[in-house]
Amino acid sequence: MELLLGIDIGTSGTKVLLLRSDGKIIADLDRTYDFDQPANGWTEQDPDLWWNAVKELIPEIIQQNNVKAEDIRGIGIAGQMHSLVMLDKNDQVLRKAILWNDQRTGAQVDQINNIVGEARHIELTSNPPLTGFTSPKILWVRENEPEIYEKCCKILLPKDYIRFRLTGEYVSDVSDASGTGLLNVRERTWSKEILEDLAINSDLLPDLVESVEVSGYVTKEIADELGLIEGIPVVGGAGDNAAAAIGVGAIKDKTGFTTIGTSGVVFVHSSQPHTDAEGRVHTFCSAVPNQWHLMGVTLAAGSSLQWFRNRFCQEEQTIADTRGVDVYQVMDEMAEQINPGSEKLIFLPYLSGERTPHLDPNSRGVFFGLSTIHEKAHLIRAILEGVAFSLNDCLSILRNLKVDAESMMLTGGGASSPLWQEIIANIFNCTMNTCKSNQGPSLGAAILAGVGSGVFSNLEEGCDKVVQIKSTIVPEKQNEYSDYYNLYRELYPALKQQYLNLANI
Predict the structure, then answer these.
(1) In this structure, what CATH number is given to the domain that contains residue 115?
(2) Does 90 lie in the same domain as 64?
(3) pLDDT category, 439, cuts 50, 70, 90?
(4) pLDDT (tens digit, 9 = 90+) per residue, 234-262?
(5) Rounded distance, CA 57 to CA 379, Å?
(6) Catalytic residue among 8, 28, 160, 240
(7) Is the previous residue joined to 357 through a cis bond, with omega within 30 degrees of 0?
């Protein structure tokens, strides 16, 4: 039986998945690790954490499942986007990777806007520069750690560092490169104009491939170390969300997915590179060759409910422990007793600022409409609805750009809530499906490996074999949320200046 390995290099851990050519997931394993916060708003991670996890997991998953190394036909890699890895002339890591959620580069983003021009940057890269992107991180190192920048000979993204360790090749794929701020997303090449404007030598950057293309082969040294065979093809792979789209079968127009994890993502596939001139949503290259995707991000999706659980639901935790169920199930049952609209209570889920559509780090969470009628269950339901409103902000922009989905997959931890599924389907006015497997990027990476290695003839075959729908939620014909959503949209503009005033106190 032909087998495929999918690797996902995450922020909190690495996962390795073993997929059979008939679409059956044999096993998956993960290793967790931490990141460093050397200063307020800074996040860094040692790339050796990723590599050590891979070195442990691959032999372990092979041994535990009695796998013959010669049966493994291909390897795919997915991972956290935007993070900066810098290597010297001897291929040694020069400093800890600056991660995607690091916020130190505000001044560098301003520089990029001044040098390139905000509108021109969107024209060239289909996105505005953001503190999370890779290009301002490069400028920050150049300005603040010039001795390290001088020694830098190659810049890689996290999954591409793992590729290098496996194959010895400096390669990235176009989906992951889309999040650097240095790629011409429409042309799927490094932007010569941006590189010249920012005085970044193109030799520092890796070669580019499509996600299904072979990018290198496992070396003999690494094969011997990990229990593999020499020459296994490693495909381009993809950034985490692009890989997750493959894992849920969102590979054609009118398909997409919504993730409710710590943050929330609304993702829609597109055969054309539509761009939002205001830069409110991302346009990135898809893991599907010569296709694209658009996505918006809600920063505090599942984390809004987690915050409320941690701070105010000790009684519910006790009930859950007594019943032997998850506390979120208890909270779900409470919220289900409340009517849509939470008795005229609206939650703005800006606990961590907001990205789409406001790009406002100063925004904060709000319960609007609180009265003596409201109990804890009302607040829980308002959080579920408020997060769905924020995600609908993302989808509304995509729809205005003529990018929409007839149905979407719902993934992430929040997807396990039947009530949240129903709320999102009704607010989106879109059929929502859940998957039998919720493996995310590692599964998508394995499917990509199957195409690149010839196990699957194309992505359609791979997704048809692997992706299975678990449940379908059809929106109700009468939308009870439209008035609440319209009011929700009016609240941020009314509070924008007050958010800034609060930040300046």
Answers:
(1) 3.30.420.40
(2) yes
(3) confident
(4) 999 999 999 999 999 999 999 999 999 88
(5) 42
(6) 240
(7) yes
